[in-house]
Amino acid sequence: MKKKFKVLVCPLDWGIGHATRCVPVIRTLLEEDFEVILAADGLPMKFLKDYFPELPVIQFEGTKIFYPESGSMTRKMILSSPAIIRGIRNEHLRLRRIVGEHNIDVVVSDNRFGLWTKSIPSIYMTHQVMIKAPSGLKWIEPFLYNIHKIIISKYKICWIPDFPGIPNLSGDLAHLYPPAKNSVFIGPLSRFSEINEEQVESSAKKYVCDILFLLSGPEPQRSIMENMIIRQTEAVSLNNVLLRGLPGEESELEIQGNTRVFNHLADNEILRYIRGARIVVARPGYSTVMDLMALGKDAFFVPTPGQTEQEYLARHLKQSGYFDCIRQENFDVSKIPLSNYSYHPPSGLFNLSLLRQEIKKLKTQL
C-alpha cells in the first residue's frame, strides 16, 4: 500500500486570520492524498476543529503577545523580544517531540517562527517578509528584515501567499526586498476561492443589509472596535449585521439596536451576508483582504491602531484603487459611503493552481 505522508499544519494564534488562510492549504493537501494533523491554540484551534472535525488536533500554545490599547505593535514586539525568543525556542523543542511521536513527514508553519527542524522538510508561510515599523523607527526596518530573513532561512521553503509581480496585494511587505532563495509565491489564499456559487443564495431578505461589520484580531482592540460600532450604529437608521469573529462561542442571534450580532457563522452563511451587504467594514488583516478580493466585494477598512502592517496595507490598497480606509480614531458609521463608492477590487485574479503545483512538487520530493 502506498504511504500517506503526514503533514502538521500549525497557524499563528494571534486572531483567526492565520487559521482561515490555512483552509485552502489543508483542503489541497487532503485532495492530494496527504494525511493532515492540525496544531493550534485558542481561537484558531476552535475554528479549525469546527472546520475540519474529522482531523486530529494537537493543542500547541504559542507566545502570548497582547496588542496594546494605544501605541505601536512593533514597539510592543521589540520590548517583548525576550519572551518571543523564549517562545521560539520552546516551539522548536516541542515540535521535535511531536515529529517523533506522530511520525510527521512535513511541517507547514503559518508565521510561527520556531516550527522548523532539520529532520524533515519544513515550510514557512508568510506575506510579511519585511516588517513595517512606525514612522519614528523606520531606520530599524532593514534590521528587522534581516532578522526575519535568518528565521526564513531555517526552513526548507517559504510560501508567500501573493502574486509574484504586479498587481499584488502585499506591496512592500513581500516585494520591497528581493525574496530569499527558498521563497516561492503561491498566489493569494482564500477559504472562499472554491465556493460553489450555486449553493450560496444571498437574495433572502435576512441576508440583505446596509453594512456588514467583520471583526477579527486579538484583544483588546477587537472589543474596542466592537463597542464603538454598537454605540455608533444605535444613532443611525441603517440595517446592519455584526460578525464578532469568535469561533467556539455560542452563535445565537443578539439584537443591539438596529444591528444583528453573531459570534460566529459557517462559511456559507458568512458568504451570504457578504453578498447581501451593500458594503463591508473590516480590519485589513491580510486574510480578510484576500477573502474580500476573492469575492470582488466592496469594503471599507479600519486598521487596528498601532499595527503597522494593517496601516500600511490599508494605504497600499487605497492607492491601488481597491478599497478605501480610515483611522479608527476618525471612524464614523454615519459617514461610510454607501452610495457612489469609487473603490473596487479587481475580479478573476484567484485560483489555487500555484499552491497545488507546489504541493504536488513537495509530494514528489518526499
Word description of this protein:
The chain is 35% helix and 16% strand. With 366 residues, the chain is α/β, with parallel strands linked by helices. It folds into 2 domains: 6-190 and 350-365, Rossmann fold; 198-335, Rossmann fold. Strands 3-2-1-4-5-6-7 form a 7-stranded parallel β-sheet. The chain has a 7-stranded mixed β-sheet with strand order 10-11-9-8-12-13-14, with helices on both faces. Helix 6 (141-153) links the parallel strand 5 and strand 6. The longest helix has 22 residues, at 81-102. The protein is globular, with a radius of gyration of 20 Å. The two termini are 16 Å apart. The mean pLDDT is 88.
Rg calc: 20 Å
CATH class of the largest domain, named: Alpha Beta
* CATH superfamily heading of the largest domain: Glycogen Phosphorylase B
Overall SS class: alpha/beta
Q: What is the name of the CATH topology of the largest domain?
A: Rossmann fold
Side-by-side strand order of the widest sheet: 3-2-1-4-5-6-7
How far the N terminus sits from the C terminus, by CA atoms, comes to 16 Å
Low-confidence stretches: none
Fraction in beta strands: 15-25%
Topology at a glance:
Elements: E1 6-11, H1 17-20, H2 23-31, E2 35-40, H3 42-51, E3 57-59, H4 73-79, H5 81-102, E4 106-110, E5 122-125, H6 141-153, E6 157-160, H7 172-175, E7 183-185, E8 209-214, H8 221-233, E9 240-243, E10 254-256, E11 259-262, H9 267-276, E12 277-282, H10 286-295, E13 299-301, H11 308-319, E14 324-325, H12 353-365
Parallel strand pairs: 1-2, 1-4, 2-3, 4-5, 5-6, 6-7, 8-9, 8-12, 9-11, 12-13, 13-14
Antiparallel strand pairs: 10-11
